Amino acid sequence: MHLISKAEQEQIGEAIVRAEAHTSGEIVAVVTAASDNYLYIASMWAALLALFVPWPLIYMTWLPVQWIFALQVLVFVLTYLLFQWMPLRLMLVPRSVMDNRCHAHAVEQFLAQNLHSARGRTGVLIFVSVAEHYAEIIADEEIYNRVSKEVWQGAVDELILKIRKRDPAGGFISAIERSGDLLAEHFPPGQGDADELPNHLIVLE
Prior knowledge:
Blueprint: H1 6-20, E1 26-32, H2 39-52, H3 54-60, H4 65-82, H5 86-91, H6 95-112, E2 123-129, E3 134-139, H7 141-144, H8 149-164, H9 168-186, E4 202-204
Parallel strand pairs: 1-2, 1-4
Antiparallel strand pairs: 2-3
Helix pairs in contact: 1-9, 2-4, 8-9
């Protein structure tokens, strides 16, 4: 993924290490190219357009049925191929559908990265899905009991702002530092704290 360079990924990893040095909590950062391929959207729109093809041809022309059917198939195939271009396909996906899929993917990553099993239930996931321009911070139950979701939203807003300004690495680092400050305030480091989870940006293609 070209959104974040190898050097920037190292900077993000270093930011995680610094943040976790002041808390017993765990921070994991994940970036993915997209949370879904949305191919079913391409199929649906191609089918809908193909369904409308025969009607004007039937009523306004004397084309044989075989030709009309062939044109219908051609429209479906060409439209489906056109929608293989991801930016165009995403234009057809409702924002609510993208947000729901991205949130589901973020939750999947929260579980896949074992944040739910972090000692003290103090795991935090910083998640970005590039294609959908989506970012989210998910904190475990014990954190939500002390820090409201509205507070975390401020860190998300800053992350999204920096991504829009073409500074995704800076956005991740800001979100990590903000998360570290909040965790340190409520969950200071204790004796025997173990660094259980990865301290680098996890990149999903």
